[in-house]
């Protein structure tokens, strides 16, 4: 049933011109500018795609974009689905399974995250080197999941060492600070309490956010090498907790965005 649904989605997209993407990209909150660098061939609103999750208010502008970037064919999810919006883990990761069906060979993910490691500053980038799933859910925990691959997917290298090494070299070349660290995924949508931030410090995480981990788990089930960069949008110091304003988070993401775009673009060139 699910497999058939997904196949319908993939067939529709192929019939509508998304024929040969090599790289899949998920753009996080406030991080849409990479799209300006793409020579767009096809742009399809999520609402037009059969069986794609239905839009919430936040999702009016969600679309799948196909075109050329740095000489490669890419497919971009501009707008992602979050568990905190009420989507199921299957829905949150539907786009990843779709891009896999379209033939992507690598997956690049971005997100906005809070800095738990207090030596990392707001506005800087962090390469996710490992994660801790605190969402209490898995996108592989449903009846038909084994039809898509091994549900006991190993998590030895959820983030490709090869891609991460390339990213580190590229950041260095551009003189862009790219921290490395562990990303904790939480359900949200509320932000964390002081006690929760202290817990995240004790767990030796470096950043916290509400996305990415389900997508990476599905990529792992499907054997798609993937990498993810967090844009650190706020500093989560339990001793000096400041009110967080979502508009402020989005503005900070926008300021750091040119660095993310430069790094992703060069990575795509090198793939
Ligand atoms: N917590 C959780 N998610 C976030 C944060 C945060 O502080 N900042 C950006 N996304």
How many helix segments?
7
> What is the H-and-E element order?
HEEEEHHEEHEHEHEH
CATH superfamily caption: Nucleoside phosphorylase domain
Uncertain runs with pLDDT below 50, 5 residues or more? none
CATH class: Alpha Beta
How many strands?
Answer: 9
Give the CATH architecture.
Answer: 3-Layer(aba) Sandwich
CATH topology value: Rossmann fold
Strand order of the largest sheet: 5-8-7-6-9
Structural class: alpha/beta
Largest beta sheet, briefly?
A: 5 strands, mixed, barrel
Tell me, briefly, the overall form.
globular
What is the number of domains?
1
Cofactors, ions and other ligands in the entry: hypoxanthine
Radius of gyration: 18 Å
> What proportion strand?
15-25%
Task: Estimate the mean pLDDT confidence.
Answer: 94
From the N-terminal CA to the C-terminal CA, the straight-line distance is 35 Å
Measured as a percent range, the helix fraction is 25-40%
Can you describe what's shown?
Helix 1 packs across helix 3 (94-102). The protein has helices spanning 2-15, 89-92, 94-102, 161-174, 194-202, 213-221, 246-270; strands at 23-27, 39-45, 63-69, 72-78, 106-115, 125-133, 178-185, 207-209, 226-235. It has seven helices and nine strands; from the N terminus they run αββββααββαβαβαβα. The longest helix has 25 residues, at 246-270. Helices cover 31% and strands 24% of the residues. It has 271 residues and is α/β, with parallel strands linked by helices. It has a single domain (2-270), classed as 3-Layer(aba) Sandwich (Rossmann fold). A five-stranded mixed β-barrel has the order 5-8-7-6-9. Hypoxanthine binds at residues 112-114, 186, 191-192, 208-210, 233-234, 236, 249.
């Amino acid at each position: 049933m699910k497999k058939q649904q997904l196949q319908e989605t993939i067939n529709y997209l192929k019939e509508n011109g998304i024929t040969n993407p090599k790289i899949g990209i998920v753009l996080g909150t406030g991080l849409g500018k990479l799209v300006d660098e793409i020579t767009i061939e096809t742009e399809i609103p999520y609402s037009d795609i059969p069986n794609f999750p239905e839009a919430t208010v936040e999702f009016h502008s969600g679309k799948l974009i196909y075109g050329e970037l740095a000489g490669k064919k890419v497919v971009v999810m501009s707008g992602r689905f979050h568990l905190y919006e009420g989507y199921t883990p299957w829905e949150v990761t539907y786009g990843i399974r779709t891009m896999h069906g379209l033939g992507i060979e690598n997956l690049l993910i971005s997100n906005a995250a809070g800095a738990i490691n207090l030596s990392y500053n707001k506005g800087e980038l962090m390469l996710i080197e490992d994660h801790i799933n605190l969402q209490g859910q898995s996108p592989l925990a449903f009846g038909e999941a084994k039809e898509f691959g091994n549900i006991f997917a190993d998590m030895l290298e959820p983030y490709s060492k090869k891609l991460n090494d390339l990213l580190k070299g590229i950041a260095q070349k551009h003189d862009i600070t790219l921290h490395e660290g562990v990303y904790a995924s939480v359900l949200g949508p509320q932000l964390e309490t002081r006690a929760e931030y202290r817990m995240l410090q004790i767990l030796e995480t470096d950043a916290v956010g509400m996305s990415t981990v389900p997508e990476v788990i599905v990529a792992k089930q499907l054997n798609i090498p993937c990498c993810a960069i967090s844009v650190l949008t706020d500093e989560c110091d339990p001793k000096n907790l400041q009110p967080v304003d979502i508009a402020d988070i989005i503005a900070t993401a926008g300021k750091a965005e040119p660095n993310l775009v430069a790094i992703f673009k060069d990575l795509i060139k090198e793939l």
